[in-house]
Amino acid sequence: MDQNENRQLEGRELDKVFTDKASGKDAKRPQLEALLDFVRDGDTLYCHSMDRLARNLDDLRKIVLGLTKRGVHVCFVKENLTFTGEESPMANLLLSVMGAFAEFERELLHERQREGIALAKRAGKYRGRKPTMTAERAAELRRRAAAGESKSGIARDFGISRDTLYRYLAVVAPRKVTAKPARKRAGREL
């Protein structure tokens, strides 16, 4: 899904903008890590919404609490909430409830996606992602592996992970199956 980062913080004067194209579900994002390294005591972090920072309640709490302990104020524009590090039961409740809603919303999205895919499959309209590996490329991959080339090098050249490489290597070309005549045993056919 395309996102318009300019729209998300429109009207704010910002010193520096950190934007990850990856989903908020992953706490290991390059720009998030750069942001965490950059902010200092007295800074205010403006984030469009909680689900842009993290979609998992545990990650959200960890990030917000880690920032506020360092003296960074965390402001979520969409939710109109600011966390300053002042311990208050209401702030903890709001962070937990709103974070739980973000996580719940993400799970609902995936459930709807799975339901939509199941319906499309039943209707014969869903084909899934097109394979990235043609039969010719898979044969070339197997040939190079059989010649003793490094698996890491092959995976890199083909733009696939080593796990994917090993899955392709494990697939044996279909063999011709011939019917065997039934064995006779004590006068009976099996």
Automatic annotation (TrEMBL):
Leader sequence residues: none
Protein name stated in the entry: Resolvase
| Molecular function (Gene Ontology), one example | DNA strand exchange activity
The text of the family note is: Belongs to the site-specific recombinase resolvase family.
Q: Which PANTHER family match?
A: DNA-INVERTASE FROM LAMBDOID PROPHAGE, RESOLVASE HOMOLOG YNEB
Give residue ranges for domain Resolvase/invertase-type recombinase catalytic: 1-124
Its taxonomic path starts at: Bacteria, Pseudomonadati, Acidobacteriota, Terriglobia, Terriglobales
Record's PROSITE patterns?
Answer: EF_HAND_1, RECOMBINASES_3
InterPro entries to which the protein is assigned, alphabetical? EF_Hand_1_Ca_BS, Homeodomain-like_sf, Resolv_N, Resolvase-like_N_sf, Resolvase_HTH_dom, SSR_resolvase
